[in-house]
Design a protein that fits this description.
heterodimer, A: Rna Polymerase Sigma Factor, Chain: A, B: Arc Repressor Mutant, subunit A, Immunoglobulin-like
């Protein structure tokens, strides 16, 4: 099946408010959204509540989604970012004096900045899922498992030259996905 | 060793100091390699900065108070889709002729290809169908259709084939798209979210990759669907 065709179906389904499109969105991006929220909010229960809000909003705003302005991942993560920041703001007690207000504004800026940094990480994690398994595997072993290419070759039995080739191919493909995402 | 073979070593910081110096000297003489290294280095930096949690997949909670996939399948199955305006008239005419123009419904493996379920013979639709033929098997559980097609022109650039269930010009659903290799022979397996007997025909069309999800009206194969 064609990947772009699947995207077109997802967009068309969101426009029609088709429940199947919501199920696809949940299956495709749900792990990234909940993973990001758990890390950003540091509270699994709160993360699950915000997760529901994110998908409810995606469902409600689906008919207005414009794929020319943002890829589905970017669109959904933008909603996620907003709801995460809303939640973090609600968690901060209201200040009682002007100095407290300024401190609150500063904390909000810091929170938003941290959220943006985390969002970027989980966006990359989602794009990694789009790589061929063999390329994703060497990248995971190198950057998550902290193994050298020689150690990867030794652990997997794959020739060192092949590990190096897959490493470069995986990096190049990820770069293409990042560029495509940024251009959408 | 070819200097290009050391690109990943260089990007990942796995070259000893002397080899790294030699590689960087080689970069100065190879603009293409230098450009590739410059393009990939930021990706390495971003991956190196990922927190361990970002690599770990967290199962998402189910959606509350929102439509479920089961409900989705039911609605998807019943939903009318609107074809291109120009295609509507063509499809209407073609559907009227279905009873005499298309294939034969076989039952319980009569096609001789083994396995259970109901088997349909697809017949070419003029003028594009040519010598194409095909069979479609609906699994007994009604959950999947497996389609075997032969004699189709290989997929042209910018085009693909698409499998449909048709009822009327304004009532049709896509089951999925696929490419046909040079051999002209292809096997396709697609999920069936409901009862195919709710539709009049199974159809294969050629579709342009133009982003329009509607039927192009360029059908190549079709089989009527009769209640089982």
């Amino acid at each position: 099946m064609h990947a772009h065709r699947a995207d077109q179906r997802l967009v068309a389904g969101l426009h029609r408010r088709d429940p199947e499109a919501l199920a696809t969105l949940h299956a495709e991006f749900g792990p990234t959204v909940i993973g990001f929220l758990v890390r950003a909010l540091r509270d699994r229960g709160a993360a699950e509540d915000v997760f529901q809000q994110v998908f409810l909003e995606a469902w409600q705003r689906g008919p207005d989604y414009d794929p020319r302005r943002a890829a589905p991942l970017t669109w959904l993560m933008t909603i996620t970012r907003s709801r995460a920041i809303d939640h973090l703001r609600r968690r901060v007690p209201e200040p009682r004096d002007p100095a407290g207000s300024l401190a609150l504004l500063e904390r909000e800026r810091d929170s938003a900045s941290e959220v943006d940094g985390l969002l970027e990480q989980w966006r990359i994690a989602q794009l990694l899922r789009g790589l061929p398994d063999e390329e994703a595997d060497v990248l995971r072993r190198r950057f998550y498992g902290d193994a050298t290419q020689r150690e990867i070759a030794s652990a997997t039995g794959i020739p060192l030259g092949t590990v190096k080739m897959r490493m470069v191919q995986g990096l190049a493909r990820l770069r293409e996905l990042l560029d495509a995402e940024a251009a959408a | 060793m070819n200097v290009r073979d050391q690109l990943s070593d260089y990007l990942l910081g796995e070259l000893p100091a002397d080899e790294r110096a030699r590689f960087e000297a080689a970069l100065a003489d190879d603009p293409a390699l230098a450009a590739e290294a410059a393009r990939l280095a930021p990706v390495v930096a971003r991956l190196a900065a990922l927190e361990p949690a970002a690599w770990e997949e967290t199962p998402p909670p189910p959606l509350r108070d929102l439509p479920t996939r089961t409900a989705a399948r039911e609605r998807w199955w019943r939903r009318p889709l609107v074809p291109r305006p120009a295609a509507a008239a063509v499809l209407g005419t073609v559907l009227l002729a279905l009873g005499v123009a298309a294939g034969i419904v076989l039952r319980d493996g009569e096609a001789g290809d083994g396995g259970g379920g109901r088997v349909l013979a697809l017949a070419p639709v003029a003028p594009l169908g040519g010598d194409a033929t095909g069979t479609a098997r609906f699994a007994a559980a009604g959950e999947r259709a497996t389609v075997h097609l032969t004699g189709l022109p290989p997929s042209a650039e910018g085009e693909f084939y698409e499998l449909w269930l048709l009822n009327a010009p304004d009532d049709l659903v896509s089951l999925g798209s696929f490419s046909v290799p040079a051999s002209g022979e292809v096997d396709v397996s697609v999920p069936l979210p409901g009862d195919p007997d709710d539709f009049a025909a199974l159809d294969v069309s050629v579709e342009p990759a133009d982003g329009d999800p509607a039927h192009s009206s360029r059908s190549v194969l079709r089989a009527p669907l009769a209640p089982g």
